[in-house]
UniProtKB/TrEMBL annotation:
Keywords: Signal. This is Uncaracterized surface protein containing fasciclin (FAS1) repeats. Pfam families: Fasciclin (PF02469). GO terms for cellular component: extracellular space. SUPFAM superfamilies: FAS1 domain.
Length: 185
């Protein structure tokens, strides 16, 4: 009888933990579309009207399969407006087949291995005395710090991008929407 009660309490405890995790990962709206935590990065991104340029670039860079895989990944996802800040003709040039390697480098510079939400970033910033360094999938580095209440990403060129929507949980990671395309050297 005691063993049965123990297992019942343990199962109830697990249910509460998993229930709390499911509650913490609620559906967020990005670009007018719900981003479902049970769907992967690509399944959600294709529905955001604010990320049509990013989705087109991911397709041109042959990264759909990668970002649909198990991961987990943390993606700093530039909006269409972020891509529009680039010099005229940049996106059109990057999506050409002959520039696929360069495009892949730029896109994977926006990806960090692991599921790193804003709480983890804040902890890393605090431990790093005001800034946290992350290695991207591309191999470069980005730095995160707080500017007031805003999370700011600095790239290797010194450009800054602000997170406009944090913690968009996916089945294979988390997305942080950013307002500027970040670039590596």
């Amino acid at each position: 009888m005691k063993t049965q009660k123990f297992f019942s309490v343990a199962i109830l405890g697990l249910a509460l933990v998993f229930g709390a995790n499911s509650f913490a990962q609620k559906t967020v709206t990005v670009g007018g579309a719900p981003m479902y935590p049970a769907k992967n990065i690509i399944e959600n991104a294709v529905n955001s009207k604010d990320h049509t340029t990013l989705v087109a670039a991911v397709k041109a860079g042959d990264l759909v399969e990668t970002l649909s895989s198990k991961g987990p990944f943390t993606v700093f996802a530039p909006t269409n407006e972020a891509f529009a800040k680039l010099p005229a003709g940049t996106v059109e040039t990057l999506v050409k087949p002959e520039n696929k390697t360069m495009l892949q480098g730029i896109l994977t510079y926006h990806v960090v291995s692991g599921r790193i939400d804003s709480k983890m970033i804040a902890t890393a910033i605090k431990a790093g005395n005001g800034a946290a360094e992350f290695k991207t999938v591309q191999g470069g580095k980005i730095w995160c710090k707080m500017d007031g209440k805003k999370l700011v990403i600095t790239d290797e060129k010194g450009n800054k991008s602000t997170v406009t929507i944090a913690d968009v949980y996916q089945s294979n990671g988390v997305i942080h929407v950013v307002d500027t395309v970040i670039m590596h050297n």
